[in-house]
Automatic annotation (TrEMBL):
Ranges where the Histone deacetylase domain occurs: 28-346
Cofactor(s) it depends on: Zn(2+)
PANTHER family: HISTONE DEACETYLASE 8, HISTONE DEACETYLASE HDAC1-RELATED
InterPro entries the record matches: HDACs, His_deacetylse_dom, His_deacetylse_dom_sf, Ureohydrolase_dom_sf
Pfam families to which the protein is assigned, alphabetical: Hist_deacetyl
Organism of provenance: Hydrogenophaga bisanensis
Lineage of source species: Bacteria, Pseudomonadati, Pseudomonadota, Betaproteobacteria, Burkholderiales
Protein name listed in UniProt: Histone deacetylase family protein
Length: 351
């Protein structure tokens, strides 16, 4: 399987994230990608590429998923942050104030003049620092997703977009959960735009793919399925419950499979079987897998107990769907093991 990796990923390198009232070192670090890349090389798992960027085509692919005012904000956010106070150049930008939607006459169409207010308007947590290189890294990540999609459209059975920052928490006009551009959604939409009539997204990250769900919630042409820690106790908390089935034309085309903290591989596998049944019933023509490895027993911020060897089985089960498949790299914070776990999954898929 070809891997398209992001040569600019390390331009995004947050220092600290807010957690329960204190600043803690970021979990989403550049070494995560480096470990995966090194393991792909060590095990000779497929060919490695960096994406060729056609600026107009890339911006068009991003604009199919994200609001123009959001990407414009992201592209200029660092300069605005520094313009607020030159000393800001020494620290990451982190949101600290948010609107309460649908309350107090809040109007989403009015952009606040204050940068900190706009930073909050376009985000949902204070755990996702933005810095000078965030936009360049995220945009090149979207290029990886587009390149992986093109390789699958050209006939490859599967391809891997190895990029960070991750994407599945990013919505049409918001960042959060370490994510800025939704690489999986960009891939799914690019598959649709190339003529695939039904595309399924099967998210196996520990955390609910709230951004992807939001992007496709009212659509019947993209099935979104997510297996994740029960949002009643797990991040991102406000979305990911089993009764969220889609809206309007999209009713029946979103499936959430929340599992309690502490779930092991046997029960997780049963959920994957259900997810794959839904993909089959949908009669998908292509599959996108936001691949989070934070379901691992050693993950420092998550609560499932999959072992390294289990990812081979996960890969084989995904392959059994028999669909052209684009993988994107999402969570997985046991840094020293994330390469082994990711490549176990990809090798399992290729078996
Ligand atoms: C892509 C992805 O996996 N995003 C996950 C974002 C999770 N953000 C909240 C993390 C809470 C950190 N908890 C630290 C616990 C330290 N003991
Ligand atoms: Zn995650």
């Amino acid at each position: 399987m070809k891997t398209f990796h992001n040569p600019l990923h390390a331009l995004h390198q947050g220092r600290e994230e807010m957690f329960r009232g204190r600043m803690v070192p970021c979990h989403e670090v550049p070494a995560r990608l480096d470990y995966v890349l090194a393991e792909l090389q060590r095990r000779s798992q497929g060919e490695l590429f960096t994406p060729e960027v056609d600026d107009a085509a890339l911006d068009a692919a991003i604009a199919r998923v994200h609001a123009e005012r959001y990407t414009r904000f992201l592209a200029g956010a660092w300069d605005e942050w520094v313009a607020m106070d030159p000393a800001n150049a020494q620290r990451d930008a982190l949101p600290s104030v948010w609107p309460l939607p649908n309350r107090h006459g809040f109007r989403n169409d009015v952009l606040p003049a204050n940068f900190a207010a706009r930073l909050g308007l376009f985000s949902f947590d204070s755990g996702s620092p933005l810095m000078a290189g965030t936009w360049a890294a995220a945009r090149m990540g979207a290029a990886c997703a587009v390149a992986a999609t093109r390789s699958v459209l050209a006939g490859d059975r599967a391809a891997f977009a190895l990029t960070r920052p991750p994407g599945h928490h990013a919505g049409p006009d918001f960042f959060g959960g370490y994510c800025f551009l939704n690489n999986a959604a960009i891939a799914a939409q690019a598959l649709r735009d190339a003529g695939m009539t039904r595309v399924a997204v099967l998210d196996v990250d520990y955390h609910h793919g709230n951004g992807t769900q939001t992007i496709f919630y009212e659509r019947a042409d993209v099935l979104t399925v997510s297996i994740h820690g029960d949002p009643s106790t797990e991040y991102p908390f406000f979305l990911g419950h089993a009764d969220e089935r889609g809206d309007g034309a999209g009713v029946g085309f979103n499936l959430n499979l929340p599992l309690p903290r502490g779930t092991g591989f046997k029960d997780w596998c049963a959920a994957l079987e259900r997810a794959l049944d839904a993909v089959e019933a949908f009669d998908a023509q292509a599959l996108v897998v936001p691949m989070g490895l934070d379901t691992f027993e050693g993950d420092p911020i998550s609560g499932f107990t999959l072992g390294s060897g289990d990812y081979d089985t996960v890969g084989r089960m995904l392959a059994a769907a028999g669909l052209p498949t684009v993988f994107t790299f999402e969570g997985g914070y046991a840094v020293a093991e994330v390469g082994t776990n990711a490549v176990n999954l990809l090798e399992g898929f290729c078996r």
